[in-house]
């Protein structure tokens, strides 16, 4: 039996994605959803609150929060999210799916019955009058897994199912892992983090501005005049974001994908 991966050997949600989602300076953040994303926000030094219930009205005063980060789905009430955001604050969204270009990831999702986010998961945010232009970036990252850590991961994903059905799908996932014969060496779980953010609109017909901007510095297109960069968009030493092709491709389409996978 494989030994569990030590905590320091488990990569967290990419710090580069956190910096893009929230900003480089410390923020007051409400995190809804994924504990992995919440942990990465805390590590980055932000003041993070995690409400017990993620449905209905948020338990925070009006204009009291810099950023709301929602992972694993769009918040139910975008009006309420806009209510708690300070002027210049924004909503950030994260869909963290296994990379469907990798054959073993596709097979694992079939075993688990996982639904992957569609082509336009943030479309309700685009249409919401409370928020401005929606920016998008994606990051690919890899998580090493072995027999025991894979079981822990998939059981957490299937926690909403009845125990018998959960056990059946976990057994199928572990059989798939065993079929690859990696043993103690483990495998690499490929993830794609699709991230979105949009600044709250303070007044109708007024272009929103971020916390780090002054309203007078921004044009109606949401960009700073005279080529002056917005603070959150200042170049930093990050992993190069990637654009994910929505069409599922087989590993044969790219030599770069032929890494230990069938």
UniProtKB/TrEMBL annotation:
Database matches in InterPro entries: SAM-dependent_MTases_sf
Region described as Disordered: 208-235
Basic and acidic residues bias locations: 210-235
Protein name, entry field: Methyltransferase domain-containing protein
Source organism per UniProt: Nocardioides guangzhouensis
């Amino acid at each position: 039996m494989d030994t569990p991966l030590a905590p320091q050997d488990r990569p967290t949600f990419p710090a580069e994605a956190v910096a893009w989602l929230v900003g480089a300076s410390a923020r007051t953040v409400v995190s809804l959803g994924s504990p992995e994303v919440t942990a990465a926000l805390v590590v980055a030094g932000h003041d993070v609150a995690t409400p017990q219930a993620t449905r209905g009205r948020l338990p925070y005063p009006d204009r009291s929060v810099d950023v709301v980060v929602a992972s694993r789905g769009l918040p139910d009430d975008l009006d309420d999210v806009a209510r708690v955001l300070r002027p210049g604050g924004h909503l950030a969204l994260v869909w963290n799916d296994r990379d469907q270009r990798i054959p073993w990831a596709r097979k694992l999702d079939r075993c688990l019955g996982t639904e992957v986010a569609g082509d336009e998961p943030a479309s309700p945010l685009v249409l919401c009058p409370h928020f401005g232009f929606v920016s998008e970036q994606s990051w690919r990252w890899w998580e090493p897994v072995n027999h025991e850590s894979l079981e822990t991961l998939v059981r957490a994903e299937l926690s909403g199912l009845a125990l018998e059905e959960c056990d059946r799908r976990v057994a199928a996932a572990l059989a798939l892992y065993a079929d690859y014969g990696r043993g103690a060496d483990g495998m690499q779980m490929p993830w794609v983090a699709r991230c979105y953010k949009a600044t709250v609109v303070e007044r109708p017909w007024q272009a929103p501005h971020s916390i780090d901007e002054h309203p007078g510095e921004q044009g109606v297109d949401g960009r700073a005049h005279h080529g002056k960069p917005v603070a959150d968009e200042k170049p930093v030493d990050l992993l190069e974001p990637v654009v994910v092709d929505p069409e599922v491709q087989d590993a044969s389409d790219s030599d770069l994908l032929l890494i230990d996978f069938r």
